[in-house]
Amino acid sequence: MPSREMRRMQKKVGVEKKRAAMRKSAPKKKGGGAPKRKRVGLGQFLKEVRTEMRKVSWPTRNEVFSYTVVVIVVVTITTVFVVLADYGFSKLVHYFIIK
Amino acid sequence: MLKAFRNAFAIPDLRRKIIFTFVIIAIYRLGSSIPSPGVNVDVLGELVKQGGFLGFLNIFSGGATSNLAIFGLGIMPYITASIIMELLTAVIPKLKDWQEEGEVGRRKITQITRYMTLGLAIMQSIAFVTLFSRPQDINGQVQYIINYTLIKAVVIVLTLTAGMALLMWMGELITDRGVGNGMSILIFTAIVARTPAEWYGLGSNVVLRYGYYLLPMLVIVALAVIVAVVFIDQGERRIPVQYAKQIRGRRMTMGGSTYLPLKVNTSGVIPIIFASSVIYFPTMIAGFVHSLERAATWVTHGAPYFIIYTGLIVFFAYFYSAIVFDPFTQAEHLKKYGAFVPGIRPGNPTATYFSKVMNRITLPGSVFLAGIALLPALMFQFFGTQTAPFGGAAIMIIVGVSLETMKQIEAQLQMRHYEGFLK
Fold first, then answer.
1. What range does the domain containing A81 cover?
2. How far is the alpha carbon of A49 from chain B, nearest alpha carbon, in Å?
3. Given an 8 Å threshold on Cβ–Cβ distance, is B361 in contact with A53?
4. Residue A80 placed within a domain
5. What is the pLDDT of residues B26-36, one digit of tens each?
6. What are the tens digits of pLDDT across the range B312-337?
7. pLDDT digits (tens, 9 = 90+) for B198-240
8. Which of A96, B353, B396, B412 is deepest in the core (most CB within 10 A)?
9. Picking from A51-60, B165-174, B238-247, which range would have the lowest pLDDT averaged per residue?
10. Distance CA B245, CA B233 (A)
11. How far is B405 from chain A (nearest CA, A)?
């Protein structure tokens, strides 16, 4: 099966290339623009932040509501469970170990 | 909503998974109640209540540090180890290769993470024991560890480390056979276990200072924070992606359009956790080296604290989202499937575009994160209370984990044609 070996070699080369490219296109810190491009100034950067934020899709009012309710219900159930368990276990521990 | 809960229990398979998860949670709580041998429980609780670094750890272990319980280390060492591994994976080529190898390679990485967790657990428990070994009373009357000897120290270190290892296994059991991600569920449980006590502390303080009429305000603030976190958590920048129509052999795939979601808050709570551990470093060191105490108090109070903390969070948000989201791999992936972003050439330009968008939307996301993280400190300023030292991150974790877990249950429900929780 020579093909397997070849594939493995190809993969290695691919990984190598990818890494080289990644080094080139590594994301810059904020304030730095895209790689190999002119650095954008702070004002320009903030302007671009604003335009990108306009394109962000936010959840609808309904989604936010139902997610919030789900979170509250889940937290309430677990809190009750954990608090009861803690209370019971601490009584047990005091009874058996600490006295 | 309620019907969805009933449905979740109507499916035997899902019911078994949920019950399994709760059983593990119960065992976790049991282990957090049993103190290590030779510990003076009453005195230790008082020390931890004073807050600071120990208080911070106490929250993540669900109150288990306060009695040096057998699960007293909590799940923190595992999280630290996974974060370190993730960083190393980005740096060391060998690890990167393993990760890309698939199942076998990833298992190797998991194995290393486990060993590293044990190492960290040993280190941390040794630190605990040395910290608690000294009688803190001036007369040497109050002993945290009764009749401290070296053998006793070794026993406690072994107990804590073994507890940590067991906890790690329990977390993995939840991931495999329960619902949700085990580690997240365990942190979630730990935070939830502390919540009633914290709220009681905050509430009673507010009542004491301002009277009862401010209590509803407090609830409203908490609700608003939850809603805000949910809102930001769901916000995503959808980059349109077009699939080309292609013929491969006799198969023809239809073109189509979809989108690539980039979350505003890609890195979740990780930046907060990172920043908090970093900012507590001076305090932790000052616990051993007293000459550093002034630097420690300077860093953790007032304006410098706010500025440094915010800076750290923004920094780590960028840092971590760069690790989690690799624009080049994404671009390559799209190219492989004959997809492209309209108006941008495939390959490198696409990667450039992704990283550009990512850098732009991470800024507001991280500033929001910083705001949430600073909330307890602000509350401290307004209401003058010591509790809720980690409230913001706690809320982030709670919201994130419950949504993630419910989405998983939802997927299972929908697989069986039931209506889910989230519409």
1. 73-99
2. 5
3. yes
4. yes
5. 999 888 888 87
6. 889 888 888 887 788 888 888 888 88
7. 777 777 777 777 777 777 877 888 888 888 888 888 888 888 8
8. B396
9. B238-247
10. 34
11. 10
Question: From the CA of B312, how many Å to the nearest CA of chain A?
Answer: 13
Instruction: For residue B125, give its domain range.
Output: 32-178
For the CA atoms of chain A, what is the radius of gyration? Answer: 28
In a domain, B145, yes or no: yes
Counting the structural domains of chain A, the total is 1
ipTM: 0.77
A41 in any annotated domain? no
Q: What is the pLDDT of residue A81?
A: 92
Q: How confident is the model at residue A29 (pLDDT cuts 50, 70, 90)?
A: very low
Contact B226 A71 (CB under 8 A): yes
Burial call B95-133: b when 16+ CB within 10 Å, e when fewer: bbebbeeeeebeeebeeebbebbbebbbebbbebbebbb
DSSP output for B352-408: HHHHHHHHHHHHHHHHHHHHHHHHHHHHHHHH-----TTHHHHHHHHHHHHHHHHHH
B258: tokens are 């979809």
Examine residue B82 and state whether it is found in any structural domain, yes or no: yes
* Number of compact structural domains in chain B: 1
Let me know if residue B88 belongs to a domain.
yes
Which pairing describes strands A56-57 and B236-243: parallel, antiparallel, or unpaired? antiparallel
| A91 domain residue, yes or no | yes
Put simply, the answer to whether A85 touches B1 (Cβ < 8 Å) is no
- Does residue A84 form part of some domain? yes
Contact between residue B264 and residue B232 where contact means Cβ atoms under 8 Å apart: yes
**pLDDT at res. B52:** 53
Question: Cα(B49)–Cα(B58) distance, rounded to whole angstroms?
Answer: 9
Rg for chain B (alpha carbons), in Å?
24
B342 lies within 8 A of chain A by CB: no
